[in-house]
Each structure stands twice: as structure tokens, then as C-alpha cells.
Write the C-alpha cells for this entry.
Amino acid sequence: MFIEDSRCALRVFLIVLDGVADRPSPKIKLMTPLQYAHKPSIDLLAAGGVTGIMDPVAPGIPVGSDTGHLALLGYDPRVYYTGRGPLEALGAGIDLQPMDIAFRCNFATVSDDWTVVDRRAGRISDEEAEQLSSVLVDLSNKLSLAAEVIFKHTVEHRGVLVLRGDNLSEKVSDVDPHREGVKVQMPRPTDGSENARRTSDILKEFLIKSKEILENHPINVERRRRGQKIANALLPRGAGRLPNLPSIIERFGINGAVVAGGAIYKGVCKAAGMDVINAPGATGTINTDLESKFRTAIDALSKYGFVLLHIKGTDSASHDKNPELKARFIEKVDLTLGKYLDKIPSDIIICLTGDHTTCSTVGEHKGDPVPILIHGQGVRIDEIDRFDEFACSKGGLGRIRGLDVLNILFDLANITKMYGE
């Protein structure tokens, strides 16, 4: 049984298009990618459902994919967020221990003086990054550091780094400056504790030695020869320890699952007690196998009361400042969704939204609200017949918080318990 309370006959399917909301772009006739894209299947869901706009945490507050997904699952990031690192590590399959300090890392291109040339090392391929990560694993075994260093590649330029040992602290600054053209600031303690100083020193030594090893690795020698940006440095950020979240089943009495390619999304859901289902070909990139992901998620609805399907490509196109590509990817999602709409049982509440706005003009997350649609039994259908930032602002849901999304969905599914007598 996927639901403890037999009164509930409905299940919830939440589709998250990462960073789908945007601002109008001169590259696509002063439209947003959602306005510009031809998306009849998504618009059909909007026309037969209720729409609105959603602030992940609060109006005008840009959020990361980590905090955005925590909010979508009903966990206030201001209470539960302990850093991106541990969530990425969980999603990467690392068995985190309570005292571990975890970091999200980028393979990056830096100059001799550590000026950041490219934070994503030219979006290095998975195959190349895997080979580079293997030498970092070897390096961690050779160095006589005061803590064990665990490194694991996840997707493209991304990876996770975990420090394991005694007397460590998460009070360590980000090394990643989050922009190009500036010098890397080596890790430093953010409080006055000896443990923070010790942790910073361990991390600094590993980063310096890593750059020495990566600089002339055969992968980078070949990338130089081809005129590509090399991956010669690690940029850690988001230091933290394992968060303690009440699980979805504890809160709502149902089990949940996630289908995603990226480690951070798997990690957030895993921290919430949800099962991770790996779809074949789910890469966490714009080249992911959408059909496999939709098929896997819909199959999971026969076993789970709540399934979250995460799709990353919309966000990636925005960070690359390519609104045309973002619109084409939305069309690809729509085409795939259209193939599976008649395979989704009628007792499913479908919600489609994003976790935040990513502006494809500047390539950054912004605090603009995100459109949301809900379709299914019992929904109060409004007059909106298309899904975009402007149309949905006039929808029947009004302007809601991301923190309230699951309550709304689970209430429609007859799951939410009454408050009071």
C-alpha cells in the first residue's frame, strides 16, 4: 500500500522543470521561453486545471536548487537547510556519517594565479570528469592529511567532496566565487574555532595538491590541444553536515519517490525519506532521456502515493544564457509529456512548476515568482488556457508560497489532516 489512510484514492505527481521561469528576452521577441515555446500538452493541462504563481520561499528572494526543492517539499530552508554539500553527497550515494563535512564541488578552469576562467570547465563531459575524479581519489589516499577525503564525480562538471574525521567543522567559507574573472579565495574559517581553522587547512592543502595533479593530466593535455578549457581546479562550496528532516511518510502518512538525474535533487528527496528511482539514460543534463524519465515516474505511481519528476535542462539552458535552447527544450518536454498523458491514471493529481526563476539574459537565479498548474479530480478549474509567467499570474491559485505546495496537493488528494476539531 502506498497510503496508510484507505480513505485516500488519489496520488500526486509533481513535475519540476528546474529554473523554468524566466524574464522576457530580446533574443526571442521580448518573450520568456515559456511564452515563446509551442507546448500544447502543457497548455492543455493548464486549461483543464487551476494555475497561479509561486514564490519558493518569499517574494524577491532568489533561491538555489537545494533550498528551492526543500521549500517545494514543505521544509522551510531557514529552519532545515544545513548547506548544499550534504544534500549533494546523499544524492551521490555517499553514506554520510553525522560528523562528516560535505561540499559541493565544480571542476573549473583557473589561471596560474587562480583567477577563475570558467566555473564549469567548458561543461566537461561525464567521461572526462570520471577519469579526473579517479586521480583525486588516488591523491586522497596518498596525502597524509588529518582527515579522510572522499571525492565523487556526479554529473558533468559537478562532484562532491567529504571530509571525515575528528574535530572538523562546517564553518568554512566557499571557495567557489560564483563568477568568472575573479581570484579564488582559499578556504578560511568563518568562526574563531580551532576546528574550523583545522578544517580550512585540510581543505586548502587538498585543493593545492589537486591543481598540481590535474594541470597536466592526459585529459587536460588533450583538451588544451583541442582548444578546449581544461579542468584544472576544484571549487568547493556549501559546507555542511547531514540535515535532520521529518520524513514525508511521518508528515503525511504516504511514501514518496523521486526520478532525477542530478545528485542534489536525489539528495533533498532522500533526506526527506523518499526513495530514489534511477531511470535509464537520466543524465541530469539537457541531453537526458526524457521518455525514460516520464515512463519510470509514471510506473512508480503504481507503488507510491507521491512521485516527483525532476527535469534539469531548462535551468542548464538559462545558465548558458540561451533562451532559444530553453524554449526548444520546453517543447521537447511537452512533446514527451504528450505521449504519456493518456497513460497517467485518472486518480492522479498532476502539478507542474519550477523550483525557481533562472534568467537566461544574465544566466543567474532570480527572485521572480514561478508559474504553477494543478490538474486532476476536484480541482477548481480557472479561465487560464496557457502556462507561462504572465498568464498564470491571473490564475485561480493566486500567488502562493512554495512551502504550501505539498499541503495544497495532498489536500486535493484527501491526504492532509484537518487542523483543529
